[in-house]
Amino acid sequence: MDMKKRYALLLGLILLIVGAALLGYRMGWVPQVKAQETTTQRSMILMDTVVDVRVDGRNSAALVERVFQRMAELEKLFSRFIPESEVSAINRAAGDWVEVSPLTLELVELGMEMSRITDGAFDLTIGAVLDLWGFGSDIRRVPEEDELREALATVDFTQVEVNRKQGAVRIPQGTVLDLGGIAKGFIVGQGIEILRDAGVERALINAGGDISVVGRRPDGRPWRVGVQDPDQPSSIRYVLPLDDQSVVTSGDYQRYFTVEGVRYHHIIDPFTGYPARGLRSVTIVGDDPAMCDAISTAVFVLGWAEGRALVERLPGVEAILVTDTDAWISPGLAEAMASQ
């Protein structure tokens, strides 16, 4: 075949391919291009802490953006330190009914349920006591006894009222609703829900120690999450395997101040008004990050014996309790740690 014939044949093939492509386009045949799978990881300051979000898979960058946007929206609903929030509106109108969004209503009801489950060791009406200690502000101090008595008189989760039909909440005059012990976990859970609804197979959200994961690591093994040593918070004492689960740790080393050699931390006992004593840290593992959030606070307040008893009677909940001299790992978690 001479050179001219070769060129003519090649030109004919090119025209045939282009013609077929144009015909397919006109007939509605669109070539399917597989979306590239990527990993996107970003950090942002939300809820007074650093929040890290990692998503593996298609559209990861857009999904990370959606998660951060949603979490920021919910913080503006739930934080009592944001004047425009719905929780701030409830506190300002104490004694009157306040209409709120469905998610705020859901969170308040969950807070009430966790208060009931823990017999008040977690109490969503502890805001007035926290204010006396200055947690949530830059001025921290040890309150006077008469101040504490007055503030403790406002702490009673059974006095919170919810009207589902009207979508409204009412608290007694003088009471200060504080959802800080459960809102972060709830917000993390809402972010995880976005990712699961999008079909994400692998992701992680870490909101200052409130950690939730979707699926497993790229190597097919469970995620590995470190638990700090209370004596040396820069060191890891335990490594936990997580598989579509959440973990929350509460510790006396996270937020505290010292007066005359005594450390006063932010986990306040709703029964005494003082920081809970006995435990150094509590780590809770479970399916729901909001419940883990509330349970970790309650177990810390209840202490070594009663805290263990609460964990043992709650299905699907595992824990690590650490004191100055001892540690307890629930049997299910100990088995999972041994097999990782």
Description:
An eight-stranded antiparallel beta sheet has the order 1-2-6-7-10-13-14-15. The radius of gyration is 26 Å and the shape is globular. It has 340 residues and is α+β, with helices and mostly antiparallel strands. 39% of the residues lie in helices and 24% in strands. It has nine helices and 15 strands. Residues 1-35 have low confidence and may be disordered. Helix 7 crosses helix 8. The longest helix has 25 residues, at 289-313. Among the domains are: 86-170, T-fold; 216-340, ApbE-like domains (T-fold, Roll). 37% of the residues are buried.
Low-confidence stretches: 1-35
**Mean pLDDT across residues:** 90
Q: Output the CATH topology of the domain at 216-340.
A: T-fold
Sketch the major β-sheet. 8 strands, antiparallel
Helical content class: 25-40%
Count of helices? 9
What general form does the structure show?
globular
Portion in beta strands: 15-25%
Strand order in space, largest sheet: 1-2-6-7-10-13-14-15
Number of strands: 15
Question: What would CATH call the class of the domain at 216-340?
Answer: Alpha Beta
Q: Give the CATH H-level superfamily of the domain at 216-340.
A: ApbE-like domains
What structural category do the secondary elements indicate? alpha+beta
Please state the CA-atom Rg, rounded to the nearest Å. 26 Å
Going by CATH, the architecture of the domain at 216-340 would be Roll
Give a quick rundown of the structure.
By secondary structure, this protein is α+β, with helices and mostly antiparallel strands.
Write the layout of secondary structure elements.
Elements: H1 3-26, E1 38-46, E2 49-57, H2 60-78, H3 86-92, E3 98-99, H4 102-117, H5 127-133, H6 145-152, E4 161-163, E5 168-170, H7 180-197, E6 202-207, E7 210-214, E8 223-229, E9 232-242, E10 246-251, E11 256-259, E12 262-265, E13 281-286, H8 289-313, E14 318-322, E15 327-329, H9 331-338
Antiparallel strand pairs: 1-2, 2-6, 3-5, 4-5, 6-7, 7-10, 8-9, 10-13, 11-12, 13-14, 14-15
Helix pairs in contact: 2-7, 7-8
